[in-house]
Specification:
- Strands 4, 5, 8, 11, 14, 17, 20, 23, 27, 30, 31, 35 and 38 form a 13-stranded parallel sheet that branches.
- The radius of gyration is 25 Å and the shape is globular.
- By secondary structure, it is mainly beta.
- The N terminus is likely disordered.
- The longest helix is centred in the C-terminal third of the chain and has 11 residues.
- It contains three helices and 40 strands.
- It has a domain of about 45 residues.
Length: about 525
Amino acid sequence: MKMRVLAGVFVCVLGLPMGAAVAQPCGAVVTFADAVAPTRELHVAVNGSNATGDGTAARPLATIVAAAQRATPGTAIRVHAGTYSGGMFIANLAGTAGAPIWIGGVAGEARPVIQGGGNGIQFSRARYVVVHDLEVRGATGNGLNCDDGGEYSNADASGFLVLRNLFIHDIGSGGNNDGLKLSGIYDFWVVGCEVARCGGAASGSLVDMVGCHRGVIARNFLHEASANALQIKGGTSHIDVLWNRMEECGERAVNIGGSTGLEFFRPPVSQTGVNAEARNIRVVGNVIQGGTCAVAFVGAVDSVVSNNTIVTPHNWILRILQETVTQGGYTFAACGNSVFENNLVYFERADLSTYVNVGANTAPTTFMFRNNLWYAYDNPAASNPNLPVAETNGVRGVNPLLETALPQAGASYKPAANGPAVGAGRGPALVSGDFVSRCYAAEPSIGAYEAARVCGTSDFNGDGDSGTDQDIEAFFACIGGNCCAACWGGGADFNGDGDTGTDQDIEAFFRVLGGLAC
């Protein structure tokens, strides 16, 4: 087994490079900037002055751009509450690994608002920068734009960016406009942000990545998109999409790949190798509700969609497409060699066109489907999808008994304790924790939630007396295959982990007899 490290995420590679486990157990997201603190502050306020201000709290500057021009490694630019004009352009802002530059709101104050402009804020060739706690709205181009300044071959042009707790919304002029636009960024984290209502006319993405590498998109709320929640294209690779909630996110909620002009790939397309729109993308532990299609693989290879809960896509559950084809001496891989596993798909069959849409010039037979649960809640008999290859260990037509039976905004779709999703996933899960930071079991549940496993009781034989010799005799008889009619319903799987009559079940039984949790 090989190991490689992404930006804040440890990745296990078992043949196909697709496994991921966060560095801290059960769902923590770790960035390069977590263990460092500012050594200097510059203040920005709506009543500040670039002419007479010096950046102190008593004499703040008037604009973020003016503060950025004065910032040195280790500086925190404290933007006080108020509304600031968008259209900012900040070039060559650079901290260091041990002394980044922070730009963001002030604790205890309302988020400052960046209003209007072409791009709300554009960072070009930024390195080791943390942007946090800002609201960006009303820009006619993109909300927050981060790029490499056109240095397409330079992996060091822009990177080590943390974008945290941002609220980006109502962006664009009705066309191909994005909330967060990332171009040529290496090593980045987008964490805890809310992005909504960007673009229009089936164009524009909430988060658009072109030629980006080694990134983590985690625990964000993405909703009301025109085209995509996430667009991942232009040679983008090694991106982990973890624990996000996406609601009604347009044509393709997660678009792994896409269509990019050859001149915009980062790094540039190769005439000697095999190119792809996207490689090594992992979409794990997300809740994806609504949208025309939940997930599209479009010219993507070596990618995985795992342990997601997908609820009521409106036309297709999944698409396999090819939009950028071999041309002009440049070879492009056919979309394929990817995995769809451990996903809980809860859908209305009457709302779908087909389950899976497969387009031309793809390699659908190289996909792998395994351990997914498919349930058409309006017609359980129609829960069998027409997959391009046979699935292994799939669960079909069995009600997962979700906590919220019909889709609604912000709902919990946790499956029932000891229900059909519990322990039915292929283990180990690719991340240590689930959508709500509960640890996945060794044999994980299917879907974004690790469902509860209900242990047995010390009144094993159900006679009303707990922890007696008769309970012990009944338990061991059950392990031997002779469970009494009144015995606890889980039988010899006392610890509820899906394995029956193991040493762990026996240990759990005696812990419960001793008054401890199993």
